[in-house]
Amino acid sequence: MENCIFCKIAAGEIPSAKAYEDDEIVIFKDIEPKAKIHLLCVPKEHFAYLSETDDRRAALLGRTLQKIGRLKDSLGLGGGYRVVINQGENAGQTVLHLHLHLLGGEALPWE
Ligand code: AMP
Ligand code: ZN
User: Fold this and answer.
1) Going by fewer Cβ within 10 Å, which terminus of the chain is more open, N or C?
2) For ligand 1, is residue 86 a contact (CB within 6 Å)?
3) Phi and psi angles of residue 33, each rounded to the nearest 5 degrees, phi first
4) 65: Cβ contacts below 8 Å, ≥ 6 apart
5) How confident is the model at residue 78 (pLDDT cuts 50, 70, 90)?
6) Ligand 1 atom closest to residue 93's alpha carbon, by position in its atom list
7) 74: helix, coil or strand?
8) Nearest bound ligand to CA 7?
9) Which atom of ligand 1 is nearest to the CA of 29?
């Protein structure tokens, strides 16, 4: 997808602090961290919204959640973590390529 910053990061055309990569996802540091550890987990396939999930993408997202669980210690998230997906304007989604925020490295405020 042209002019998509996360497609460019996934393709290695824009630098990022990558923590993990395989054939279908890349995980890198958020440039404006909202927690001690704030990573973005980005499926390499371009689609904008969680609500665009079809059966194939549901399987991809399921594998992605499973991988995050398996990688938690190497990502520094062994003490616990929060997964956030912002969908659309009201949630403040700014990058229209689906991504999971992974927050942790410290106790996270909830209320
Ligand atoms: P969202 O608001 O859910 O769309 O999240 C987009 C996130 O991408 C924000 O937390 C930004 O700080 C982050 N971000 C934007 N550009 C970059 C970049 N070049 N490298 C790393 N993170 C980025
Ligand atoms: Zn994209």
Assistant:
1) C
2) yes
3) -65, 135
4) 83
5) very high
6) 4
7) coil
8) 2
9) 21
**Is the distance from the beta carbon of residue 31 to the nearest atom of ligand 1 less than 6 Å?**
yes
Contact 7, 17 (CB under 8 A): no
Give the pairing type, strands 81-84 and 37-43.
unpaired
- On the question of pLDDT at 13 being above 80, the answer is yes
Ligand number nearest to the C-alpha of 8? 2
Identity of the residue numbered 78:
G
Distance 55 CA to ligand 1 centre (A): 26
Using CA atoms, how far apart are residues 72 and 66, in angstroms rounded to an integer?
A: 10
Give the catalytic positions in this structure. Answer: 99
The answer to whether the CB of 53 is under 6 A from ligand 1 is no
Distance CA 28, CA 41 (A): 7
Q: What angle do CA 80, 10, 106 make, to 5 degrees?
A: 20
Whether the CB of 30 sits within 6 Å of ligand 1: yes
Per-residue tokens: 49: 């919204």
Q: Is the Cα torsion angle 14, 108, 45, 64 positive or negative in sign?
A: positive
